[in-house]
Design goal:
The protein is an alpha+beta fold. It has four helices and two strands; from the N terminus they run αββααα. The chain has a two-stranded antiparallel sheet. A hairpin with a 5-residue loop joins strand 1 and strand 2. It starts with a helix and ends in an 8-residue tail after the last helix.
Length: 111
């Protein structure tokens, strides 16, 4: 594979997965990828599966906040997950995904 083909392949792979970096309080950067190249995003089912994957990724990205049972830590955990999901949905930029996120009844903060 030539260098140009490799760059094009890398760019195509990036388009088929969302990735977001999230900074933990101790300045450690947490990067989480959500793959969706296997999904048909023209269907409601495909978009719903992607949204579920984003919610799961938010739990992983914000896990550093889940160990403390205090009310403020639980609120920070919920805020972290909500912000993560919101940023990922904006980054992926698919209108039907944004619609699913806006009408989700359980929200990105459920366990």
């Amino acid at each position: 594979m030539t260098r140009t083909q490799l760059i094009i392949a890398a760019a195509a792979a990036a388009l088929l997965s969302g990735s977001i970096a999230h900074a933990a309080p101790d300045s450690e950067l947490i990067q989480v990828k959500v793959s969706y190249s296997d999904l048909d995003l023209s269907t409601a089912q495909g978009v719903q599966i992607l949204y579920t994957r984003i919610q799961s990724a938010s739990a992983n990205a914000c896990d550093y906040l889940s160990g403390d049972a205090s009310l403020s830590s639980r609120a920070q955990y919920k805020d972290c997950r909500r912000d993560f999901v919101s940023k990922m949905v904006r980054q992926i930029n698919i209108p039907t995904l944004a619609q699913v996120a806006s009408v989700s009844t359980d929200g990105p903060t459920s366990h």
